[in-house]
Task: inverse folding
């Protein structure tokens, strides 16, 4: 058994020990369960050079179940059904996105198993339109949204919380091949009501000769009120794909406003850069502007206009119109 496996197993055993103790003291609380169903789809059409890129698309489906057993104890399993870059777009691939146990006691939360990562989860929730477009780090592959391992979070005060995570570092779609681990530490501050600041640092070990550890740094600041929200994040990744000097960095600025109970408008601007232009072929600025309409409790429709401005020499700007759809509960 590798050291990596021992660390993860020890963490999961610790979680289970605490969970068992809590379960024995919680005999009066009734278990509660709920289904998890989320479906992302769209119709899109490109313009100009992208004119041939159009059609209906089923992007992703999440199917699962969450069950709260007693005080602080819950289990969750979620399947992710989507596309794979390795096969034809006509096929759908199913992955296990979450298979986890959580325990919450007081200000402490402990998760173990195939869990959601903490690298950009906070920014994604603040952005609030994941079914329309992924948050910056997810969009440009700075990290994985879920992985196998353990995490904990502790709320020290109303204005300060911190979290730590140890996972494989290879995501939930790949079989573990690398013996390194991915470590992350984060802190979230709320100095005044509505204002939130997030700082995160991570180290993804390689354990292979000739390769370098991946280092991630993320900073975020945002303000959310009843009628509007605005946020900005700056991210940097050193040694992308474990290759020395392949650094990437960029920012994302976004805002949204509620026109009424059923209608929002939103806008976002991303800028992705690479050190010494090593990734210039994929570096870009990207913008999105649109609206969201809530059709009842479970359905959302979001028409939007997008523009991509590549930084590669001679590359033309790309324009497209989308109608994104969401169904979920």
Result:
């Amino acid at each position: 058994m590798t050291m990596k496996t021992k660390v993860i197993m020890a963490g999961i055993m610790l979680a289970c020990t605490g969970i068992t103790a809590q379960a024995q003291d919680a005999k009066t609380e009734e278990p509660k369960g709920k289904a998890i169903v989320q479906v992302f789809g769209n119709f899109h059409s490109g313009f100009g050079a992208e004119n041939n890129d159009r059609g209906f698309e089923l992007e992703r489906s999440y199917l699962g179940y969450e069950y709260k057993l007693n005080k602080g104890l819950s289990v969750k399993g979620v399947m992710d059904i989507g596309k794979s870059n390795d096969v034809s777009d006509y096929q759908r691939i199913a992955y296990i996105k979450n298979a986890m146990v959580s325990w919450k006691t007081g200000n402490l939360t402990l998760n173990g198993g195939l869990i959601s990562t903490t690298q950009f989860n906070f920014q994604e929730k603040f952005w609030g339109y994941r079914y329309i477009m992924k948050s910056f780090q997810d969009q440009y592959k700075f990290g994985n949204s879920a992985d196998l391992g353990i995490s904990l979070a502790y709320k020290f005060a109303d204005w300060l919380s911190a979290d730590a995570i140890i996972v494989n570092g290879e995501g939930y779609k790949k079989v573990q091949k690398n013996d390194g681990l991915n470590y992350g530490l984060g802190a979230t501050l709320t100095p005044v009501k509505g204002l939130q600041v997030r700082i995160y640092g991570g180290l993804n070990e390689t354990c292979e000769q000739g390769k370098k550890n991946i280092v991630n740094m993320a900073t975020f600041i945002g303000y959310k009120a009843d009628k509007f929200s605005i946020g900005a994040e700056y991210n940097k990744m050193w040694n992308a794909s474990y290759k020395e000097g392949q650094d990437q960095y960029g920012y994302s600025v976004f805002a949204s406003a509620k026109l009424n109970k059923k209608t929002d408008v939103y806008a976002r601007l991303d800028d992705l850069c690479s050190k010494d232009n090593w990734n210039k072929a994929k570096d870009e600025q990207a913008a999105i502007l649109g609206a969201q309409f809530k059709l009842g409790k479970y359905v959302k429709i979001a028409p939007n206009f997008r523009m991509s401005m590549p930084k590669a020499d001679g590359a033309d700007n790309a324009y497209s119109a989308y109608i994104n759809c969401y169904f979920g509960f």
